[in-house]
Automatic annotation (TrEMBL):
Keyword Transmembrane appears in the UniProt entry: yes
UniProt entry keywords in alphabetical sequence: Cell membrane, Membrane, Transmembrane, Transmembrane helix
Major location (coarse): membrane
Signal sequence region: none
Lineage top rank: taxon: Bacteria
Keyword Transport on entry: no
Membrane spanning residue stretches: 12-37, 49-67, 73-95, 102-119, 139-167, 179-198, 204-224, 236-253
Cellular compartment(s): Cell membrane; Membrane
Cellular component aspect of the GO annotation: plasma membrane
Membrane-topology descriptor: Multi-pass membrane protein
Protein name: Probable membrane transporter protein
Length: 255
């Protein structure tokens, strides 16, 4: 019975995170990391490595669901993914060698800054008045480089940084930006997972159970993403980041 409960909790958590990840285009890993650290007693590195096991199959399915509803240029998606790979490994190497509390605080600081920037834009203007910065398309590979670095350092991040940059900088719709961000996650996540696994910072059983639960609810989350107004989706995205940062700070201070 105890063994069954031990298996059920990661499955249920994965189902919840899969729905949230599909709704917000983040793969669920950004929420999984603090939950694994606080609820399962994992170190920051082990939580990030374990979350990567869940992220890969979940984001593949989520990307496919987004692509079915909002086709996007695959050549651009591939370019972003390749750029992300260039910065993933050095960042992942740094992550496994940092002090766990330092890494957690860096993670929380990043999330707070991103959330405040993202939320400020939705509150400062009415939804119809939000305009892009009109960045030149040649700057788009920079989104991949930044995303790859964050993905390697924190186990997540490519989709997080891609969505607001693609919306604010290049004027893409939120749902399309989230789909492209998801596509960037997979190649970098494979490389990051290999680095964390080499450092023995992965709980494979828990990660696999999280992935199985998430696969069951990803499609539902994506479907809801296309029913909500875009400005509400942006606010939900920012509020989730703030809540996650609070959990990470609590973990770091407690440890």
């Amino acid at each position: 019975m105890e063994f069954s409960f031990a298996l059920a909790w990661p499955l249920l958590l994965g189902a919840l995170l899969g729905g949230v990840g599909g709704l917000l285009g983040i793969g669920g890993g950004i929420v999984a990391i603090p939950v694994l650290a606080l609820g399962f007693g994992m170190s920051q590195q082990l939580a990030q490595g374990t979350a990567l096991v869940m992220i890969m199959p979940n984001v593949l399915l989520a990307f496919w669901r987004y692509y079915q509803r909002h086709p996007m240029p695959l050549a651009t998606v591939g370019l972003l993914a390749l750029c992300a790979l260039a910065t993933t490994w050095p960042a992942a190497w740094l992550a496994v060698h940092l002090d766990s509390r330092v890494l957690a605080l860096c993670f929380a600081t990043f999330l707070i800054g991103l959330a405040l920037h993202f939320l400020r834009g939705t509150l400062r203007a009415a939804p119809a008045e939000i305009k892009s910065a009109g960045w030149h398309p040649r700057l788009m590979p920079g989104v991949g480089l930044a995303g790859g670095f964050l993905s390697g350092l924190f186990g997540v991040g490519a989709g997080l940084v891609a969505a607001p940059l693609l919306v604010r900088g290049f004027g893409l719709r939120q749902a399309v930006a989230q789909g492209m961000g998801l596509a960037m996650v997979v190649p970098g996540s494979v490389l990051a997972l290999a680095t964390f696994a080499q450092a023995q910072q992965v709980d494979w059983q828990t990660g696999a159970l999280l992935a199985a639960g998430g696969m069951a609810t990803i499609s539902t989350g994506v479907a809801w993403a296309h029913r909500l107004p875009e400005y509400k989706l942006r606010r939900l995205f920012a509020l989730l980041l703030l809540a996650t940062a609070a959990l990470m700070i609590a973990r770091a201070l407690r440890g």
